Amino acid sequence: MIFVSLGLVNVRRNLSRSVLAIAGMAVASLVVTSLLSLAPSRHQGAQLAERYLFGGDIVLTGLQIISGAHDLDPQTTEPSGWRLERPPQDSAGLWGELVPWLWTHGSLSPRPGARRAGDCPAWLDGILLQDVLGRLAQNPQVLSARPVTIWPVLETPGGEGAQWTPRTGAFLLGRDPDLDRANWGQSLSTLLVQGRYLVEGDSLVGLVDSRRGIRGFTFAGAGATLNLAVPRGYAGPDGQPLFDYTDLRPLALPIAGVIETVVGSEVIEGEPIPVFWGTGAVLVPQAALDDLARERGLAAAPANAVVVRARSLIGLSDLVERIRAEFPGLRVASVQELLASLNLSGAPQPLMTAMDGQQLAAMIRPRALPLDLNVAFAVIAFTIAALIVASNLLVLLTQRRREIAILRALGAKSGDVAVMVLTETVLLSAMGCVLGYWPIRLLSTFTLISNRLSLGRIVTLTLGDFGVVVGLGLCLAVLFGLLPAVAATRVTCTEALRDDD
Amino acid sequence: MTISPSLRAVNLTKTYHVNELVWAIRNLYLDIFAGDFVVLAGPSGSGKSTLLHLLAGLDRPIYGDVVLEGQRYSRLDEDGLARLRRSKMGFVYQFFNLISYLSAEDNVALPLQFAGRPLPAARRRAAELLSLVGMDQRRRHLPSQLSGGEQQRVAIARAMANEPDFLLADEPTGNLDSHRAHDIVELFARLNRDMGKTVVVVSHSDLFHRYANRVLGMLDGRLDTEQRRVGGELRPVEHRR
Fold first, then answer.
1. Rounded to 10 degrees, what is the CA torsion of A43, A44, A50, A56?
2. Which residue in chain A is spatially nearest to B43 when comparing CA positions?
């Protein structure tokens, strides 16, 4: 303990050098804190394209039409009453036989006798929908919330004349073109690369993803026709809208245009190549969907989902958690989570596939590249700062050789002297880290508060980042502080105390 | 009955490299007995301080050994020597070597804290020791606020902190005027006489001779002459080379 207190005294004694060391560490801490403070909004750029596709940032749905392919093993319970069939020209080919999980896509058919296509633990009927919309409107982080229809349909894999193999995963997504334009403005025109945007008004036309083929769906462009099979809708025992996939009606859907969704880029031969996301989503006007619903037995297209647009993408995960907590009966997922789910599985799963929170968190982790770079920057910044502190102490040691020799002569052990020097290093570094952390963090906190992030989330972020900054700073300071500490232990009693002989 | 020496130098040899090889101590044998008051005298460069450092365990010989109450220094590692210095030896320097930013009391408390005594207890003991050396009124002062004689008194109190059996001093009066030097000599004598400390002092001056029971003259790293007190007077004895 005495050596720790001697280290503390030394910090005070050489104030100018201490201030220099603290300043170096504070600058490093400031840089790292800035990087970490940017981290909560790091997905903002990446997600702009993705959020358009769903018309928002978060999707709430009560429907569970079918499960993922992994739930459809005949040996397991089959709550959905579907059976899995692989198409004859499956892209996985032989590999799909040998390694089932490489199976990129499959087809689902209703089991004989099955009349219902799923269970609905919490459907969005009229009453519940109003309740959900009302409560979402009170959330300060929510910019808008609007009901949409997600209507799972089947489609033929080939063109005209091809063998009819119903394929799941495609879904009609009801959109209001005027609302979309109001919501997305300029970004809408940059996303549309070909064709028109549902200009036909209420007529039944669709927009498709230009890369849908990579997910096993039929490639289709503007002017093409998509061959779909639309299930009949009916009211369930409790009034909930259900779809009966044993009663399908063929639908030839004219494609008005395609959308392209860039979700990232990869460098090939030195050139960044955009990575597109393919989906089976077919965007159709909501009004046309209502007509289709009436034709298929429902009063109107069921609003079986709510798309929420967040006021800010900063703290989106926090908003998702809050909505999940508020509506435990509904399935709530951010668009990013949905994309992660789709990208990982590689299968054209419908939107309503049950998701596990932890699994999704693991899925989206590889996308956090900016955070990894933050760590690299943090290590570099702290390494430089720790070197400043260590070199400072090395210089000081030359002045303190006599003093250390006295301590050694009085019975201080090597370890004691090392503790004294390390205490000084750690104290200087800790002070620098703390000084550099708080100014930036306070500014960042104002940003988070203005984005209506919950207090709990702000505290978690603040303390978590504080732990990272101080922990990393101190670890590196101790590492580099070992240099002067070891040098101090090598001071011998006589070399510094010899006066005369 | 033969009295075995408390501190023994056996064939002690130490060299330095300063452009050329310098033999600081050459094959030196020395026995120091409990309660001795030994003065090491001799010209500059004769090896007095080197011998004192070797006896205190501050330095290591290139050959030979020092044995303290049966314990051989060569068998101890650096931390072992540190423990030995802390518990068995008190060392006083010509230039006091007090820690400049600690008060007189905290300087004296330092070795006590090294030995694991908590600060309050260490400070109480330090106050007692400072009182013993007549510095109780100045215990809150920094070394820079004390005179040379006062600093040396504090240094002696510090050397006494862990109640060592041996008190070794390297020119303790070398930086003091004659009046203050006399006080310090008296203090060493009192510690030897009243508290039974074994004192080994390196000194150019003959101030200590009045109280010493042995005066060893060194030359070229060897013990050259020896005087022992017999019947109140120092008398030369035949020296064994």
1. 120
2. A501
Higher-scoring residue by pLDDT: A258, A375 = A258
Q: Domain map of chain A by residue range?
A: 2-40+373-500, 48-311
* DSSP string computed for A309-363: EES-STTHHHHHHHHHHH-TTSEEEEHHHHHHHHHHH-S---TT----HHHHHHH
Structure tokens at A106: 């499959």
Q: Strand, coil or helix: what is A376?
A: helix
Chosen from A3, A6, A493, A501 to mutate, greatest number of chain B CBs within 10 A: A501
What are residue B230's DSSP bridge partners? Answer: B233
B62 touching A, CB under 8 A?
A: no
DSSP string, A400-414: HHHHHHHHHHTT--H
Task: Report d(CA B73, CA B56) in Å as an integer.
Answer: 10
Cα–Cα distance measured from residue A151 to residue A153, given in angstroms and rounded to the nearest whole number:
6
Residue B79 has its nearest CB partner, among A402, A413, A494, at A413
The H or E element that residue A485 is part of is helix A455-489
A to B CB pairs, distance under 8 Å: 77
Residue B141 at interface with chain A, using a CB cutoff of 8 Å:
no
Contact yes or no for B126/B106 (Cβ under 8 A): yes
Give the chain A residue nearest B24 (alpha carbons): A501
**Amino acid letter, residue A282:** V
Could you tell me the CA-to-CA distances from A375 to A21, A365, A366 in Å, in that order? 22, 15, 15
Residues 6+ apart with CB under 8 A from A215: A104, A105, A169, A278, A279, A280, A342, A346, A347, A348
Q: In the beta sheet, which residues pair with residue A146? A: A307
Q: Can you tell me the ipTM of this complex?
A: 0.87
Return the higher-pLDDT residue of A17 and A360.
A17
In this predicted structure, what is the pLDDT of residue A184? 64
Structure confidence at residue A238 as a pLDDT band (50, 70, 90): low
Closest chain A residue to B88, measured at CA:
A411
Burial class (CB in 10 A: 0-12, 13-18, 19+), B81: buried
DSSP for A434-465, please give it. Answer: HHHHHHHHHHHHHHHHHTT--HHHHHHHHHHH
Of B44, B85, B91, the CB nearest to A500: B44
Binary contact (B49, A13; C-beta < 8 A):
no
- Read off the pLDDT band of A278 (50, 70, 90): low
| Strand B71-72, strand A305-310: pairing | unpaired
Radius of gyration of chain B (CA): 18
Q: Residues with Cβ < 8 Å from B138, sequence gap 6 or more?
A: B104, B130, B145, B146, B150
A50: tokens are 């993705």
List CB contacts (< 8 A) between A13 and chain B: 101
Mutate: best of A407, A410, A420, A495, partner B, most B CBs <10 A: A410
At B38, the pLDDT band (50, 70, 90 cuts) reads very high
